[in-house]
Structure formats: C-alpha cells, structure tokens
Specification:
The chain is 24% helix and 32% strand. It is of the alpha+beta class and 384 residues long. The protein has two domains: 158 residues, Aminopeptidase (3-Layer(aba) Sandwich); 188 residues, Gcn5-related N-acetyltransferase (GNAT) (Aminopeptidase, 3-Layer(aba) Sandwich). The strands form two sheets. The protein has a twelve-stranded mixed β-sheet, sandwiched between helices. Strands 2-11 form a two-stranded antiparallel sheet.
C-alpha cells in the first residue's frame, strides 16, 4: 500500500474570546529580545490591555495544521496628524513562530490583512514601533525589499527613547522654587484636562484633541483615580505641568528572563547604589533564580510641561510617592528636550523607532516628509 500524503494547511482567522487561553499561552512563549529578554504575561485576559486605548481592536491568528504559529493585533484610534483628525491603526503584538513556512505564509497574508483593516474601519494610515535592539524584527521589516515582494514598506516617522528612572545622586536637584506640586482631584479635573489639550496643540499623533475624548480616554485606564495625576503650579497658581503615574501590574506583567551584559552591569550598579539609598534594585532574572518575577515599575503618561525644571520636580514627586521597589518608565520623542532625564538622576535609555507601514500599491503620505517635524505624542500603552 502506498503512503498517505499529509496535507499541510496554513490558515488565517480572526481571534474571538474563545481563543483567549491559547493566545495567552502562545504570547507568553515569545520573549522579547533586547537589552533585557522579557516575557509578557497578560494574566487571564489577552484583550484587556487593548481597552486602555480603544474599544475597536482586532487580533489575527495564523495557524499551521490547527496550531497557533503567529498573531498580530490592530488597535483603531483617532489621532491628530499635522492638525487633522485622522483614523489610524496601531499594528502591535506581532509574534511569528521561527519556522520558514510560518514566516512565508505571513508574508503572503500581511498585505490582504492591512487592506481588510483599512476597508472595514476606514483607516487612513498604520503605525507600528520597533525596539532598535531587536535585530530580528528590524531585519524582517526594515531591510530593503525587492519589488517582486508585495509587502508594506516601513517608513521611519520618529525616533524616541524609552527612559527608566531608578533613583538619583545626593547632589541632584529635585524641586524648584516657585513651584508647588499637588495631587490631582475631581475638583481640578477640568483644569488638568484643559491644560493637557492646550499643551497638545502642536503634537502629532495625539489623541488629546477634544475635552470629551480625553475624559473618555482617562476612564479607560483600569484603576484610574484623579489622584494619579501630579500637577505643577507656578507662583500665580497656574498649571505649568502634569503627569499621570500608573501601574500595569496584573494587567500586563513584564518578566525578565535574562539580562544582556550591559543590562547586567547596570543592575549590579543599582544594587550597589541601593545600599547607599540612591536607587532601587531591578528584579532578578529567571535564568538565575528559576522563578518568574515581574519588573516593578510605574509608567508616566500625559506628560506636559512648560519647562524642563517643571518636569524634574514632577518626576521627583512621583518617584517619592511610588513604592520602594518601583522605578519609573516613560517615552519621549528625541526632539522633546523638556523630557530628558534630569541631571543627577540614575537612569537608562533604549532607542525605538515609530514607523508608518505603507502598502505596496500606495504612495508615501505627505506627512512623512522631513519638513513635518512636530513632536510625536508617544504614550506608554501604544508601545509596551
């Protein structure tokens, strides 16, 4: 009797809540490579983190003979691009099994998927971010392509830094005269929102265009309270700066698997500085203790300041109000000098690129021209 031929089948489908468990398992199996190899744990709900940004999102599952071998998610959001309200889709959470068939199959599906998203939601543009230390991702998406491959072209829109603040030296200046830092409350909620919207007027990719939209956005933050805001007032009792401190713990945890040589040296320095009460320690990696423990940090969002000294004071206030094992994390456009880590702070940076994938059959959008160089509004939930 002749041998039966095994039929291999690759399929693409839209994820449903019924796929929650297998998505969580597949997602956890893909550590992000970089200065720190990190496994991301979304607890019991894969989709919960998306709700922070929008109630419109889709996840696609690539299967090989019924087994999940790839995923990608799209979050639909209205933002301001060069002064114009624009509907965009954030492409994120791309995970493809390191198998030739899976990679080739995804290459065949990616253009139709982008076209389907664009048609269904009337999306004008797509955006995605890449960590410059993730060499595999950069080689896959950014390397020059031949015209024969019908794939989106990734155009670099902005460069930005992921900044982590872990402590400060004794000589670091933490507060400035004529500044009063207070916690937010429902009483000054209107004033906070008005200031954020006014300060966002010249930002690109901001979702802070209208007061009602921003109030709706803030309600999405799980566990949010107005006291999460730190607000800076000048001597005239006018708001001159805001930031919101928030923890993703329990919604999306970040488990360090292994530190690179550079990151390991930094972690050892933080241990030493901690003995001198200058800094806070980083979580031990899994490969050392064989226990999966999360990084402990708070993200800083809606950072708007009139001056770098205002940011320094807000950063110090939020640091002192955080837990003793937490560090602070925020993103800044490289052109936004107001948000550079203040002098005297113990901090680290990682470089990221904000890309606009353009479909093979479309022309390059005008806003990608270098003459449009407004600071991009980069919130943490869009990136990590």
């Amino acid at each position: 009797m002749g041998q039966r031929k095994v039929v291999e089948m690759m399929t693409l489908e839209l994820a449903q809540m019924a796929n929650n468990e297998e998505l969580l398992e597949f997602y956890r199996s893909f550590p992000l490579e970089g200065l720190i190899n990190i496994k991301i744990d979304r607890g019991r709900d894969f989709f919960k983190y998306f709700n922070l940004q929008s109630d419109q999102y889709l996840t696609y599952i690539l299967r090989f003979n019924g087994k999940v071998c790839g995923t990608v998610s799209f979050i639909i959001e209205q933002v301001i691009i060069e002064g114009k309200p624009t509907l965009i889709a954030w492409a994120r959470d791309l995970r493809i099994a390191n198998e030739r068939k899976a990679i080739l199959s995804w290459s065949e599906h990616i253009q139709p998927v982008f076209e389907e998203i664009k048609k269904a939601f009337h999306v004008e543009y797509f955006f995605s971010t890449l960590n410059f230390s993730e060499e595999k991702a950069l080689n896959t998406f950014i390397r020059p392509r031949t015209q024969k491959r019908n794939l989106p072209k990734y155009h670099l829109y902005r460069k930005f830094q992921l900044v982590s603040a872990h402590g400060f030296y004794p000589w670091a200046r933490q507060s400035w005269p004529n500044l009063n830092i207070r916690r937010g409350s429902e009483k000054n909620a209107e004033a906070i929102v008005d200031y954020i919207i006014k300060s966002s007027a010249n930002y690109s990719l901001t979702s802070c265009g209208k007061k009602e939209d921003l109030f709706d956005k803030l309600e999405r933050w799980i566990g949010f309270d107005w006291s999460d805001f730190f607000v800076a007032y000048n001597h005239k009792n006018e708001i001159v700066g805001t930031l919101m401190s928030w923890t993703p713990a329990g919604i999306q945890d970040y488990l360090p698997m292994r530190y690179s040589f550079e990151a390991h040296n930094f972690r050892q320095f933080l241990k030493f500085a901690n003995l001198l009460t200058w800094s806070r320690k980083l979580t031990k990696p899994y490969h050392r203790i064989k226990i999966e423990s999360s990084l402990n940090f708070r993200t800083l969002n809606y950072i708007r300041v009139d001056h770098p000294d205002v940011f320094s004071s807000l950063l110090a206030a939020s640091f002192h109000e955080s837990k003793d094992n937490e560090f602070l994390l925020y993103f800044r456009d490289k052109k936004n000098i107001h948000l550079k880590a203040p002098r005297g702070w113990i901090s680290a940076e990682q470089s990221y690129g904000l890309y606009c994938p353009v479909l093979a059959n479309e022309s390059t959008p005008d806003f990608l021209h270098p003459k449009f160089d407004n600071i991009a509004d980069v919130e943490t939930t869009r990136i990590i």
